[in-house]
């Protein structure tokens, strides 16, 4: 049993009573922190940083040294999985991620296989173990992966895309090929997340960054069904503790009921979804994570406080079966003034306490 | 009374019985058509094309010569309104629209005034009249404008934006200034659309391209409330005919009930919203326009047919109070193969007939 000293985040995910709303930020270890940029410079480039467990550990801990965050998240990239599948990930300066061998040919798709995470993604597991040691059971560590559809977008497009033309053309013309990619990737992600749990991740999050770009029917068939398979196969208990799971579909607010129904413990929401409505729509059957607009961090400290309180007000008073984890609705922008983040974190901790008080019987 | 020979589009907007589902495409006069590129070349650039009524008329009619579309839409740009407000619109090659004088200073915002459309946007009204003459009451002509919030995004950012950082910072820090911009722009858009109706537009559409980038509460206060003011002040009857209005918020599926409640006749939907659910959520109290994923037009003709039928199936059988206008869920991509569009249009016309048959009593 290795319950962290501060287990507020884990308790909120499992909809257990907490004294205040826990908070962490997507991409909290990132370029808005000068110390991150410094470590990255030393690493040479982004990918070397991801593949060096000691440095990945170092940047994972950096935001915790600055802010009173209630969780750490493994520093890594969602594209390490397709990289381990042999697609050849690289980062062209200022251009985002690219693959040397995008998945376009039928033979390559037939040949695709799920990698053994303990062999091809060993550096991630080493980072997880090292971070757990360094955290020394202070706060929990979150592991993560991209969703199969989101990974498939990059794998087929060969990098970022504005319109997903190539992967969507495959979806419409050769759904069998896309389903094959998704099935293999589902196996890969399942093994990858379970290996992270084995190595010490105390909660896991699946990022479906691009599921929201799909038509409603296709979201179910090509994204949510595969995420559901992963959630069903996740290790639920490790080291005597429940390992909760979070599913975040950017732009997925319309499909909240469906997402909340796949067996995950929490659903991440971007800033377009009203949290009070989301609680009603899910009958408080899952915890909700989110959902401040990341752009609010560019406003003045006074406005950041107002907007942070607005999110807490919007979720409302906690009940016996509710859970809220404060977060941004998307990754923190690299241009965010680092000192603005303290205003957010401190406001969440102070202002949320009253919302967790036991209501009069 | 100048009812067009083909009034299927207008009837569907007003939820009156039709024999088949009418179809038109957002940005149907555009770069995917070689004849459009040719006219634009002759015009010199995009803005000269917009400002030349004869050429704007020419490109408006081009897609109608190729495809059996049920409506024409005025060829223009949503940024003509801020241009008429003195912001100095220009298009940097390959960079999209820019303003010479973005709205950043308080004094400039205080000085902002709604232009007289018959003076500063006379070229648009001349284009509307000329297109109506050229259409000769064959199909109806749609006029349009950007929504106040969408226009304000460009006006404050000074052009396109990936994250809307500047306009959102204003929203959080100086909501009074943003409200002032929106109030003046609302007046400008109202006058502009009513002038288009006076000049001959037989339906009008408001494009809220960026409303979907807002938090739910801010969407209501900074986008929908202003669109509602415009809809309330639109000329409802002209030349003896009802002039229907369509409101399209990209990414607004979550807020459909609210959008449908502002008094517009139809709501445009992007491809992420399920049409059957949308009918239930709005109790068929508005017509729905949409919502094929524009990327479906890159698939094979067989797949285009399948996906087009899927949208018609998704809307389902028509009732006495339902209306559906087939469209894409967003503007047609400039890379679309022009001959693929015929497959879509012909499939809509043929396949939809059975869905309009009177059900057995």
Molecular structure report:
Two copies of one chain form a homodimer. Chain A has 361 residues and is of the alpha/beta class. Chain A has one domain (8-356): TIM Barrel, CATH 3.20.20. Helix content of chain A is 48%, strand content 12%. Chain A contains 16 helices and eleven strands. Chain A has helices at 8-13, 34-43, 46-51, 53-66, 80-87, 106-111, 117-120, 122-135, 148-157, 165-173, 175-199, 216-233, 256-260, 275-282, 301-315, 338-351, and strands spanning 72-73, 89-92, 96-99, 141-146, 203-208, 237-238, 241-242, 245-249, 266-268, 287-292, 324-328. In chain A, strands 1-4-5-8-9-10-11 form a seven-stranded parallel beta sheet. In chain A, strands 2-3 form a two-stranded antiparallel ribbon. Chain A has a two-stranded antiparallel sheet with strand order 6-7. In chain A, α13 (256-260) links the parallel β8 (245-249) and β9 (266-268). The longest helix of chain A has 25 residues, at 175-199. Chain A is globular.
């Amino acid at each position: 049993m290795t319950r962290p000293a501060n287990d507020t985040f884990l308790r909120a995910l499992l909809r257990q009573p907490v004294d205040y709303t826990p908070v962490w930020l997507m991409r909290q270890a990132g370029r808005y922190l000068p110390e991150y940029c410094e470590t990255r410079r030393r690493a040479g480039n982004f990918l070397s940083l991801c593949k060096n467990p000691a440095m990945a550990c170092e940047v994972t801990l950096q935001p915790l040294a600055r802010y009173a965050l209630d969780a750490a998240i493994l520093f890594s990239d969602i594209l390490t999985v397709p990289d381990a599948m042999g697609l050849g990930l690289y980062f062209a300066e200022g251009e985002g991620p690219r693959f040397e061998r995008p998945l376009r040919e039928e033979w390559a798709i037939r040949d695709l296989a799920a990698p053994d995470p303990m062999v091809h993604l060993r550096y991630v597991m080493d980072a997880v173990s090292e971070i757990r040691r360094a955290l020394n059971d202070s706060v929990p560590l979150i592991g993560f992966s991209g969703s199969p559809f989101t990974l498939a977008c990059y794998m087929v497009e060969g990098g970022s895309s504005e319109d997903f033309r190539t992967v969507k053309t495959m979806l419409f013309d050769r759904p069998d090929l896309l389903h094959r990619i998704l099935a293999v990737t589902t196996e890969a992600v399942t093994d990858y997340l379970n290996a992270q749990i084995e190595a010490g991740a105390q909660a896991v999050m699946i990022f479906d960054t691009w599921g929201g770009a799909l038509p409603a029917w296709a979201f179910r068939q090509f994204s949510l069904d595969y995420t559901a398979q992963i959630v069903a196969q996740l290790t639920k208990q490790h080291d005597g503790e429940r390992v909760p799971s979070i599913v975040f579909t950017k732009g997925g607010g319309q499909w909240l009921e469906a997402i909340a129904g796949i067996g995950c413990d929490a659903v991440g929401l971007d800033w377009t979804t009203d949290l009070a409505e989301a609680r009603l729509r899910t009958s408080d059957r899952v915890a909700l994570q989110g959902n401040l607009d990341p752009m609010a961090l560019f406003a003045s400290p006074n406005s950041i406080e107002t907007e942070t309180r607005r999110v807490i007000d919007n979720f409302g008073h906690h009940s016996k079966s509710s859970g809220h984890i404060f977060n941004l609705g998307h990754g923190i922008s690299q241009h965010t003034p680092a000192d603005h983040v303290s205003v957010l974190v401190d406001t969440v901790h102070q202002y949320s306490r009253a919302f967790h008080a036991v209501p009069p019987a």
